[in-house]
Amino acid sequence: MKRKIIKTADGSTTIHLEEWDEHYHSVHGAIQEARHVFIKNGLDTFPDGKVAVLEIGFGTGLNAFITLLEAKRRGLAIDYTGVEAYPVASEELQQLNYVGELKAEQQLPLFGKMHAVSWEEIHRISGEFALTKRKQSFTAIEDKEKFNLIYFDAFGPRVQPELWTREIFSRMYDALKEKGVLVTYSAKGSVRRAMQSVGFTVERLPGPPGKREMLRAVK
């Protein structure tokens, strides 16, 4: 599938899959979307202490890197697990401008380290941030009550509806601890109903630029 690096509305880059006309991040602003959906409405619900995060769709590492920066800023202890079936190529990663756009040049080695470390092992990226990258299908996730927070950032229901089903959200529900939170950019009615059918309490929230709403689900 042909892939191209493009610039989004806030100046940050993303990857465009031309055959699907799908993007790794919002064309209205990759960094803006990540901050709004996953930080403001996800990580910020855990103001202190240790937070175990599961990301569905590690992709470019943008959400993980912003979470690392927030952990440093706020003194959080983050245990981060990123699941990705098809890792981004190193030549594509070199074209992404997240470090510069986030004005985080001092942390450039950490962004590189996140992508360079081996899969299937726990790595200490910084004092505040431990990372485990797992190369697996989302349908193979079998964690039980392990995570406080899930960043659900799979490709959209339009192109991969099989990733937004009751079966998938049942796995997400099982993976969360009691009172755990799942956030996603999607606000489709079918997605909300699939979440509710497995036991989540779901709320619609204002979405990031370019989207009217997003969803937050609580176990």
Structural write-up:
With 219 residues, the chain is α/β, with parallel strands linked by helices. It has one domain (30-218): Rossmann fold, CATH 3.40.50. The protein has seven helices and eleven strands. A hairpin with a 5-residue loop joins strand 1 (3-7) and strand 2 (13-17). Helix 1 packs across helix 2 (62-74) and helix 6 crosses helix 7 (189-197). The mean pLDDT is 96.
Approximate shape: globular
Query: Helical residue percent?
Result: 25-40%
Based on the structure given, which CATH architecture is correct? 3-Layer(aba) Sandwich
Order of helices and strands: EEEHEHEHHHEEEHEHEE
Largest sheet: spatial strand order: 6-7-5-4-8-9-11-10
Any idea of the CATH class?
Answer: Alpha Beta
Strand fraction: 25-35%
In summary, what is this structure?
The chain has helices spanning 30-40, 62-74, 90-93, 98-101, 108-116, 166-175, 189-197, and strands at 3-7, 13-17, 22-23, 50-56, 77-83, 122-126, 129-134, 147-152, 176-184, 201-206, 213-218. It is an alpha/beta fold. The chain has an 8-stranded mixed sheet, sandwiched between helices.
What's the helix and strand layout?
Layout (H helix, E strand, L loop, with lengths): L2 E5 L5 E5 L4 E2 L6 H11 L9 E7 L5 H13 L2 E7 L6 H4 L4 H4 L6 H9 L5 E5 L2 E6 L12 E6 L13 H10 E9 L4 H9 L3 E6 L6 E6 L1
Parallel strand pairs: 4-5, 4-8, 5-7, 8-9
Antiparallel strand pairs: 1-2, 2-3, 6-7, 9-11, 10-11
